[in-house]
Amino acid sequence: MMPLEGIRVLDLSGLAPGPYCTMLLGDLGADVILVEATPGAGRRMDMGGNPRTQAYNALGRNKRSIGLNLKDEKAQEAFLKLAEGADVVVEGFRPGVVKRLGVDYEAVSKRNPRIVYCSLSGYGQTGPYSQLVGHDINYISLGGALGATGWPGTPPAIPLNVIADFAGGGLYSAYAILAAIIAREKTGRGQHIDMAMSDGVTSLLAMATGQFFGAGLVPKPGADFLNGGIPCYNVYQCADGKWVSIGSLEPWFWKETCEALGCEEYIPHQNNREKFPEMFEYIRGKFKEKTRDEWFEELRHRDICVGRVLAMDEVFEDPHTQAREMMIEVDHPEFGKVKQVGIGPKFSDTPGKVRSTAPMKGANTDEVLREAGFSDEEVSVLREAGAAG
Predict the structure, then answer these.
(1) Active site residue 135
(2) How far apart are CA 226 and CA 234, in angstroms?
(3) Which residue is catalytic, options 11, 104, 136, 165?
(4) Domain annotation covers residue 224
(5) Tens digit of pLDDT for each residue in 233-242?
(6) Residue 354 is part of a domain; what is its CATH number?
(7) Cβ distance 7 to 87 under 8 Å?
(8) Which tens digits make up the pLDDT trace of 298-312?
(9) Burial of residue 373 (number of CB atoms within 10 Å: 0-12, 13-18, 19+)
(10) 307 lies in the same domain as 360
(11) Dist. CA 105–CA 266, nearest whole Å
(12) pTM, entire model
């Protein structure tokens, strides 16, 4: 048994945030049905172009795919019929699109009042930017994360698209959906979730916003407590050109770090900004004496917050990542065992599972329509009309 067995999700989203949200739900047992445009029916980028790409596409795993041209009234009716037996709808269109297609929350909830309908967008369904197009870089700009990232005197450092797309968008949406399902058990009703990635980014900055509201502190790139401004919480290059991270914020960790680096005189000056230039010079020089892995092996056996800064080709070779099963092998009918990222939460009683790799577009159209009560003849009519594919 898995935590979300019995929950059916219709996924209308296209790019990374929505698919990541439904991947999380599918990993925990939800029956996720991708509702994808038939060829020529939309202008979205195709993120899974061939069978091999799909085999390694973790965002599509544990899902089935149905092709519907939602610009066709017959396909709209087919979607609404599918929604009658669903628990969740996730859509990632620009605000107003699903209403024009006739598959918005109002239309779906008339057929199924218990539906949890999540609209995931860049700036939300309301507000002056709601119709503004964007991507992760734009959402972290508005949300406040990009302006606090980088080093003094340099342009903001652009992170991989994990903050808005995956954390503020996909992960936040999955959390909200599960909360709405719990609320439904109390009220008997579903509801609409308006999830903006820019809102998610700002929410993720909860600690920084507290410091801003309370003391007027504005995080500045490379100049503050947790973004590169202090020696005890920083990255240092080693003899081989690779990097280690040090996160010794607590005084006892800092004391141990100074003792290991032979600079006990800096123990009482952890937060003394006048000493920072001198401390940085010494510590940077010290780390250049050994390789990254040599330093890590030496420091990790002491009470020091230390980590190796790993490139992607090193992450899955790390023994801890392997022990935590964050790289798994999944059976594929054509390519054998393929590697994918593992499942984050570890449940003691109802663990998640990767049951299938990502489907090709429309691979399960007939199967899913029949499950919804369509006869073979009705499925054929939809196909012949170009409403399904």
Answers:
(1) yes
(2) 8
(3) 165
(4) no
(5) 999 999 999 9
(6) 3.40.50.10540
(7) yes
(8) 999 999 999 999 999
(9) exposed
(10) no
(11) 60
(12) 0.94
